Amino acid sequence: MSEKSNSDQNKKSGALSKSNPLADALERLERSVAQREGNRMASLVKPIKEDANESDEGLSKKSSAAEDSVKEPSNSKNPNEIDSNKTGYSAKLSLFVFSSFIVTAIFIILGVVFWPYAKKHLNSELTAIHEAAISDKEPLNEGILNKLGDVNSRLDVLSKNLDQISNWSNSSAADVYEELDYLRQRNELISLGDLAIHNADRKSLDKLISIREKNSDPRLQSGAASEILRVKLAYMNGLRRGSQSIPIGQLFPEYDVENEVDLNTEQLISLLDDLDAMDTHRVRAAYLLADKRNGKAATALVNVVANDSNLDVVREAAMTFSEMTGFRNEDLLDVNSLINWWEKNSDKVLPDLKN
Predict the structure, then answer these.
(1) Do the Cβ atoms of 302 and 272 come closer than 8 Å?
(2) pLDDT: is 170 or 70 the higher one?
(3) Is 276 strand, coil or helix?
(4) Mean pLDDT, to the nearest integer, of 281-300?
(5) Spatial contact of 306 and 341, defined as CB atoms under 8 Å apart
(6) Among 240, 314, 233, CA closest to 272
(7) CA-derived radius of gyration, the chain
(8) Angle (CA) 182 184 186, round 5°
(9) Cα gap 105→166, rounded to integer Å
(10) Is 247 in contact with 257 (CB distance < 8 Å)?
(11) Residues 6 or more apart from 180 whose CB is under 8 A from it?
């Protein structure tokens, strides 16, 4: 149908060209242009078709090669090789299981054999460690307890001080004044005791005795009694002063005496009663009267005990009197007991003493 239509058109165009030369030229030009366009499209389509064919051939070759490579390994292993591999694997597995069983059995046997010894050694080590821990713990506990005791004692003292401060804060001015007055008097008692010990002051001791017997404040009575005991304890411990010989040439130049033991009773009594003489010389005179053993010496010693102001002289006179008469009293400063005993027993004792 197309060829027929083209022939018809050619015929028509031929008829027209014969009648019109311009139309004939235009028709030729149109044909040449159409022919050129058709050749160009054909040249473009041909390379594309060739490339497509080449790519299809490459893909088919690659797929066939892959199939061959997949098929070859599956066909390369034969049944004999597979069976040999399975046999080797099972042998290795059985050998591993058997060796594991042997090793386990050996360990169990060794454990059964050596466990008692290991257990004994372990128990001894644990016991030693436990004992060491206990021994180290005991000193630590003692130290902690001692420190806690110190802390508790300090806390007790602090608590007492706080209670005392609290009581003072709650007390009135009169109570505070009364407490201060008591502290003042208590300090006076301590001072009296110091004077009686250090200075051998008998008046201080007599004041303490008077306060103990006459003061209405029980606290001051107790304080005075404590100070009296402190003084008497100081005079009970041996010689308080060094033994010093009497300088005869200085004190008795008119007498022809070379040794102090050669002094007679009157000379010793005169030195004992001389308040201006040194206390050590008077103490020595009271000591030497022990060898005289006569009524004058005993009476002089009683007078010294009753009236002398120096406690060292009183103490030595009381000791000499006890040796001479047989009077016994551990309290060498208990003057009243000595005087009362002498008043009761002097009539019996004096005849036994040489005059």
Answers:
(1) no
(2) 170
(3) coil
(4) 90
(5) no
(6) 314
(7) 72
(8) 70
(9) 84
(10) no
(11) none
Residue 18: what pLDDT? 47
Question: Is pLDDT at 243 greater than 80 in this prediction?
Answer: no
Type of residue found at 203: K
Query: DSSP characters for 109-146?
Result: HHHHHHHHHHHHHHHHHHHHHHHHHHHHHHHHHHHHHH
| Tokens at 103, concatenated | 């090793």
* Interval 158-178 mean pLDDT: 74
- In the DSSP assignment, the letter for residue 217 is -
DSSP state of 310: B
Question: What is the average per-residue pLDDT within 76-85?
Answer: 54
Report how far residue 110's alpha carbon sits from residue 174's, in angstroms, rounded to the nearest whole number: 94
Whole-angstrom distance, CA of residue 72 vs CA of residue 229: 129
Which residue in this structure is represented by tokens 């490579």? 69
- Can you tell me which residue has the tokens 């009183």? 314
What digits encode the pLDDT tens for the residues 25-69? Answer: 777 777 776 676 555 554 554 554 455 455 445 444 544 444 444
pTM (predicted TM-score): 0.50
In terms of Cα–Cα distance, which of 273, 268, 278 is closest to 324? 268
Alpha carbon distances (Å) from 68 to 59, 60, 61, 82, 125: 14, 12, 11, 22, 76
Q: Angle at CA 80, nearest 5°, toward 79 and 82?
A: 65
Q: How many CB atoms lie within 10 A of CB 47?
A: 9
Q: Are 324 and 353 in contact (CB under 8 A)?
A: yes
Type of residue found at 298: A
**Residues composing the chain:** 355
DSSP secondary structure letter of residue 291: G
pLDDT > 70: percent of the chain: 70
Which residues is 310 bridged to in the sheet?
201
Q: How many whole angstroms separate alpha carbon 214 and alpha carbon 237?
A: 29
